[in-house]
Design a protein that fits this description.
The complex is a heterodimer of chains A (270) and B (92).
Chain A lengths: L2 E6 L7 H14 L4 E5 L7 H4 L10 H5 L5 H4 L1 E2 L6 E4 L12 H14 L2 E5 L6 H8 L3 E6 L3 H14 L4 H4 L5 E9 L1 H5 L6 H8 L3 E6 L2 H9 L3 H4 L4 H13 L15 H9 L1
Helix pairs in contact in A: 1-13
Chain B lengths: L1 H8 L4 H19 L2 H19 L7 E7 L4 E10 L5 E5 L1
Antiparallel strand pairs in B: 1-2, 2-3
Classes of the chains: A alpha/beta (270), B alpha+beta (92).
Chain lengths: 270, 92
């Protein structure tokens, strides 16, 4: 049976879309059949980050309203044939998403894929609650920064009250994904540490994504970072997180890209 | 000289962030965490039970919840129209 997973955060700009693309691609690279769904109606960006912006014909709203068939709106990734994207609408507003319509589309997606990953819009409004509505797994993307941690706490509260599972008295499986982490700064007391954030939010840790220029480079190119540069530190961190989602137990390390002086010299030469 | 001293004494801002968050979230969890839902559910169910026995108007019932550190209080105020037309206030 397919797993429905929401990538959410409350606060904007912390890396939801980047993480959706990277985790989706990493799971697909592992042989899973994956669809990533953009719920950010009016401000769609998942298509752009994944390099599919010129292939969008129909979108989620068209499917929800019955103007297009699901198969017409799904875009298959050119690099990975186990990865598909269902884009959001850029012209409509979020009110065009109905609860029943979303439920029907989710049901159809669950029949076709192993993973349905919903990229939530920022905020705690309708779009965000619809994105989490059917999830059984939630990835809470958090930066080690006060406003992001506060908003994540709020989102965790919503996951425990506004989802279908919560209303049935069951629990959404929640995971923390700490992004833009700088181990050096945390060690020097300039940034909340992994332990600080875990203690405050008290949900299990899925992965630590180090701050890295590779993330911007990948989105510039329109490619999930796990595909753009699989050997890079963030890509390895996302790949590990995806394996944990598949049930593997891996030691939690902060992948680092630091090189010694020699490494730096050789990198320049290379 | 002052700058040099403060450089060596520097402890970093992360502990401050951590402390502020812990205080703030303890407060926010108490006031926001699912409260609006719980109170409105209680309100509906209490209304249903009361309405079985006496006539009561929707806007004549008030439910308030105050969550404290160790004890929370639930305040219910219901106005019931007595059979002779006079109003009877019920408070729990």
């Amino acid at each position: 049976m397919a797993k429905v997973m929401v990538v959410t955060s409350g606060k904007g700009g912390v890396g939801k879309t980047t993480s959706t693309a990277a985790l989706g691609a990493a799971l697909a690279q592992g042989g899973q059949n994956v669809v990533v769904v953009d719920f950010d109606v009016g401000l769609r960006n998942l298509d752009l980050v994944m390099g599919a912006e010129r292939r969008v014909v129909y979108d989620l709203i068209n499917v929800v309203q019955g103007d297009a068939k699901l198969a017409q709106a799904l875009i298959r990734d050119k690099r990975l044939d186990t990865l598909s994207i269902l884009p959001a609408s850029q012209t409509r507003d979020k009110d065009a998403l109905t609860e029943e319509g979303v439920a029907r589309v989710m049901g159809d997606l669950k029949e076709k894929f192993d993973w349905v990953i919903c990229d939530s819009p920022a905020g705690i409004e309708r779009g965000a609650t619809l994105a989490m509505r059917h999830a059984e797994v939630a990835v809470v993307v958090t930066n080690p920064e006060v406003s992001s941690v506060r908003d994540s706490d709020r989102i965790i509260g919503l996951l425990d009250s506004k989802t279908e599972l919560a209303e049935k008295g069951e629990r959404v499986q929640k995971h923390l994904l700490l992004t833009r982490y700088d181990a050096g700064r945390a060690q020097r007391g300039e940034m909340l540490t992994v332990e600080d954030v875990l203690e405050i939010l008290s949900i299990p840790l899925l992965g630590i994504i180090p701050e890295s220029e590779e993330v911007l480079k990948a989105s510039n190119m329109g490619s999930p970072v796990t595909l753009a540069n699989a050997a890079s530190a963030p890509a390895r961190a996302y790949a590990d997180a995806a394996r944990r989602l598949m049930g593997e137990t891996l030691a939690m390390v902060v992948p680092s890209q630091r090189r010694g002086l020699l490494g730096k010299i050789f990198r320049r030469a290379a | 000289m002052k700058n040099v001293l403060s450089f060596f004494r520097r402890r970093g801002s992360a502990p401050v962030a951590r402390e502020r968050l812990q205080l703030l979230l303890a407060h926010e969890r108490a006031t926001l965490g699912g409260r609006s839902d719980l109170v409105s559910i209680l309100r509906e169910e209490i209304l249903a039970v009361i309405a079985k026995h006496v006539t009561v108007e929707r806007d004549k019932i008030q439910v308030r919840m105050d969550r404290g550190g160790s004890v929370s209080t639930l305040e219910v105020d219901i106005e019931i129209r007595a059979p002779n037309g006079a109003e009877l206030a019920l408070s729990a």
